[in-house]
Amino acid sequence: MIKEISKNAIHSLWLPVALVASWWIFSTNSQDPYFPPLRVIWEQFVYLWVFDNVPVHVVPSLINLFSGFFFGVFIGIAGGVVIGTNQGVARFVEPAIDFIRSIPAVATVPIFIMIFGLSYEMRIAAIAFAAIFPTMLAVIQGMHSNNPTLLDTAKVFRLTPFQTLVRVRIPAAGPIIFSGIQVSLQVAFVVTIASELLGSGFGIGAFTLIATDAFLITDAWTGVILMGTLGFLVNVIFNLVERRALRWYLVSKKLS
Amino acid sequence: MLGLMLLWQLGTSFGPLAGGSLPSAIDALSALGALLVLPEIWIAMSQTMYIALAGLFASVLLGIPAGVLIGLSPFAYKSLKPVLDFFKVIPPIVIIPIVIVVFGPTSEMGIFLVVFANFFMLVFQSAYGVRHLDSVLLDTLRCYGMSKWDEIWHARIPGALPFIAVGVRIAVAVSMVVAVVAGLIGGAPSLGQQMLLYQSSGQPNQTFALVIVFGILGLSLARTYSIIQRKVVFWTD
Q1: Any domain includes B8
Q2: Residue A98, CA distances (Å) to A232, A248, B178 in order
Q3: Could you say which of B78, B102, B196 has the minimum Cβ distance to residue A12?
Q4: Total tally of structural domains belonging to chain B
Q5: Is residue B24 a part of any domain in this protein?
Q6: Which of residues 175-234 of B touch A (CB under 8 A)?
Q7: What is the pLDDT of residues A221-244, one digit of tens each?
Q8: Could you read off the pLDDT of A82-108 as tens digits, one per residue?
Q9: Which residues form the domain of B129?
Q10: Which are the contacts of A43, defined by CB distance < 8 A and separation ≥ 6?
C-alpha cells in the first residue's frame, strides 16, 4: 500500500522536479536580459514576496477576487434559479445571455473603467459581472436537466415548491452548478489580473506591469510566477471544497 | 432581445443610469454603424482573426499529435499529467508582462499567447481520449488479432475524436478571447488595441460599439464551429 503510493508519487512528481531543476541549471549563467537565472529570480521572489509586499499587493488582489466572485456567483445562482424554473422568462432573456456570454470578459473591463473610473468599485463590479454568467448558465442547465422522476417523487411527498427547489432541484443539479462556479472562479481571477494590468496602483498585476515598464525583468518574473501560482492554488482549493460539498454525489456514483 | 434593448435605452435616458458615462442603446448602435464603415475597424478585425486562427491552427497541429502520442504511453501520461494540470489552469493573461518584453506588442506575441492558452488543454484532451477507450472494445480487437498499429489507427484515434472535438471547440472560443486580450492588455495589433485606444481617448460610444462587435464575433464563431463539428464527428450525439 505505502509502496504503491510512493511509486505513484514518484511517477507524478519526477517530471515537474526535473523541469524546474533543468531550468535552474540551464539558466545559471544566462546573460539574456529577458531570461535571468532562476536562482536570481528566486532570491528576488523571496526578497519581494516573503512577506514585505503581501499586504500591499497580494491582499487587495485577493479581497477583490473573492468579493467579486461571491457577489457574482450569488447573483448567478439567484438569476439562474429564476430563469431555469420559468419557461417564459427563459425565452425572453436567453438570447441576451447568450450574447453577453460571447463577449470576452476582459473586454468588459474598459466599460467598467468608463463607468466607475479606476476605482475599487470598478474592480469588484467587473469581477462580479464576469463571474455571473458561467454560474447562471450552469444553474439554468442544471434546472432543465432535473430528472422528472425526482420531481414527481417530490410532488408525491407533498413538498412545497420552495422545499422542492432547495432540497431537491438545486442539490440534484449540484455537479453541473459546481462546474459552472469553477469557470466563474477562473474568469474572476483573469478579470482581477486584467483590471490591475489596465491601470491601477496596487495589486500583483499592477506591480508586474510597473516592473515591466521600468525594465525590471527579474521583478516582472516574480510577479508572473506569483500570479501563476495563485491561479493554480485557487483552483486546487476550489476542487477540495467541491469534493467536500458533492461528497454524497461521489459516494452514490461509486455505489451504483 | 428587443425588449432588453428597449430597457437599456429607457434605463440610460430616464432611469438611474441617465447622465452617467454609459452610452444609451441608440448612441452605441449609431456608433457601431459609424465604426463599421471605417477601414481601420476591418483591418483590426482581420488582424484579430489572423492572431486567433494562426494561434488556433498552430496549437491544434502541435497539441493533438503530442497528446495522442502521450496518451499511447502510460508512463508518459502519468508523468506529464501533473505538468498539464498545472499549465491548463494558468490563464495566459498572467504571462503577458513577460511575453511583451520578449516579443514586443506584435502579432507574434498574440499568436504565442493563443498557443499557450490552448496547447496544454488540447494535449490533455487528446491524451485522455486515447487512453479512455471502452475496455470491452479493446479486448474484442485483441480477440480478432488486430495489430498494435491497427488498434491505434482504427480504434484509439477514432475513439478519441469526440474528446478532441470538445477540446477544439473550447480552443476556438479561447483563441478569439485571447486575440482580443492580447491587443487590449499587450498592445498587439487587433480589435482589443483599438478598444483601448477608444477607451483611453474618452470615446464611450465607440468603446461600447466594439463590445457589441465582440459579442457578434463570438456568437458567429461558436455557430460556425458547431456546424463544422456536426459534419466531422457526426457519429457522436
Answers
A1: no
A2: 28, 32, 19
A3: B78
A4: 1
A5: no
A6: 176-177, 180-181, 184-185, 192, 195-196, 199, 204, 207-208, 210-211, 214-219, 222
A7: 888 888 888 888 888 888 888 888
A8: 888 877 777 778 778 888 888 888 888
A9: 37-232
A10: none
